[in-house]
Specification:
By secondary structure, the protein is mostly helical. The protein is built from 13 helices and no strands. Helix 1 packs across helix 4 and helix 7 runs parallel beside helix 12. The longest helix is centred in the first third of the chain and has 19 residues.
Length: 286
Amino acid sequence: MPETPHQLQDAARERGRAAADHLSRVNGAQGLQAAVLALLLPAGSRRAARAWQLETQATPGAAALREHIDHLPPAARLPWLDVLLARLRGQALPTRQALLEATRRVMAARGTVRPIDRLQWLLMRQRFGQASAASAQAAAQSDLSHLPPTDVLAVARYCAFLARMVPVEAHDDANPPELAAADGAAGAAWYASAMARWEPHHSIPPCTPPDSDGLVQALQELQALAWMQRPVLARDWVTAALQHSRHGRLADTAADALRLSCALLESPLPPELERHYRGAAEASPP
């Protein structure tokens, strides 16, 4: 007799709880590396999966570990990545460096590095102390309306990068052109909303994503904003994302891009973004 939708949901929740229980006991260097790499794997990529197998072939229990991770709901994956990276900070420097090198190989295995990969890579470097944020401005009001033009340009460049994932992830060249056009229009609409507060006083550049160096430079300039301003920026982004999301609910990739951005800016999660992850609490870290 086929299972009912309710039974399928219960089974999925139970698998998520089992995965969380398994991950809570992963502490050795090899296991942590295998788990982090599995969390970073793009769904359905055979090349990335093969690269993961090569990187973890000497790790006992790696296949079972990945199977558990595959059962995590999407909203639980990034919280677990945070926890595992924190555990890895206690490992020796060569271990952390080896993980970064393995991460580059796995991310590059598809031939194309996704925008979300770049944010995850930057987060890993930040967590491991290999990328220092610029010195933040000491004082300031939280109002962003009167930022200098150079800071507004940095916001625009970073938002143009996020627009590849917010409110929806852009399809790649293998998909029909109409899908890419629709995704691009959605991203441009979000970008316009995110930049709206500066429209009366500044010439807002087109929504043109920066290259890797431009992304890092824009991020460093945003990290140098006053500590009271960065949370306001994050709230603006989330509010605009909800306005342009279907049924007012964040897509998983959009939520992850915004959460990673908050982490990189050392800003607390806006309540609306935090709620997205609360829905996977049963499979999330305690």
